[in-house]
Amino acid sequence: MKKIIFICFSLLLALTGGCSMNDNDKNSTNDNKTEAVKPKDMDPKDLPQVPAFQDEKTREYMVSTKEEEPGYYLLESKLKGFRMLFPEDGKYSSYLSSHDENEEIIAFDSYKKTKNKMLNAQIEYYQGVTFINNPETMLDQISSENGYNGNFEKLESEGKDIYIAHKKNNFENDKNKYNFSYRYFGYIKSTEKDQIGIVFSFMFRCPNNDKPCTLDKDNLGDQVKKLVKSITFLNKEG
């Protein structure tokens, strides 16, 4: 009799345990479905009230509504070649952006109105092309495009080597109060995958003459390094 009771009790535990597991599985599945919803497929009212999500074109690149760092979210390229931090006030610029099988250009602007500081940025991603493998060739080309004759600082980061330089540009025949800009430019080479790399450019300026503005090149340089160091190449093959 005791044996029969024990068997029945064991069966009861198995059944209730199975139901509990099924419920947990259902909850897990529902959670995964919730996490899988991309910002581009959500109602803008349910998204963070910042340009990165409220601008229709920009939110197509946003991975999730999770804030990675204060003021920064995560961007993923259309080719799924890389991810990087993206400023909350950043807006995609379709005029300078494009992509095809082996190249993707993402241009964006970030305007901090209270500081009267504008950032114009451009990220050029390349995959499956041989020229991107040669740092010497790439840096010569980048120097020529930017009218730069100096050296590049090399930063070693996980999975990549970063070459960066900056230059102050003065606008000739410009009577504006802030007639200059700082441009940071360079090249990122993947150290883990062949024929994959990025060319980048970040230009800072003060657009409104009637408002105070300070452009500290060291502080701006730190901002740029933060962004380029955050870049992670995603390609599984290369």
Distance between the termini: 68 Å
Return Rg in Å.
25 Å
- Quantity of strands, as a count: 11
- Helix percent band: 25-40%
What best-fitting shape do the alpha-carbon axes yield?
globular
Total individual domains: 2
Number of helical segments with 4 or more residues:
5
What's the story with the biggest beta sheet?
8 strands, antiparallel
List unreliable stretches of 5+ residues. 1-9, 11-34
How would you describe the overall organization of this protein?
This protein is an alpha+beta fold and 238 residues long. The protein folds into 2 domains: 1-36; 50-233, Protein Transport Mog1p, Chain A, CATH 3.40.1000.10. The chain has 5 helices and 11 strands; from the N terminus they run H-H-H-E-E-E-E-E-E-H-E-E-E-E-H-E. Strands 3, 4, 5, 6, 7, 8, 9 and 10 form an 8-stranded antiparallel beta sheet that branches. It is globular, with a radius of gyration of 25 Å.
How is the secondary structure organized here?
Elements: H1 2-36, H2 51-54, H3 56-59, E1 72-76, E2 82-87, E3 90-92, E4 98-99, E5 103-112, E6 117-127, H4 135-145, E7 153-157, E8 160-170, E9 180-190, E10 196-205, H5 217-229, E11 232-233
Antiparallel strand pairs: 1-2, 2-11, 3-5, 4-5, 5-6, 6-10, 7-8, 8-9, 9-10
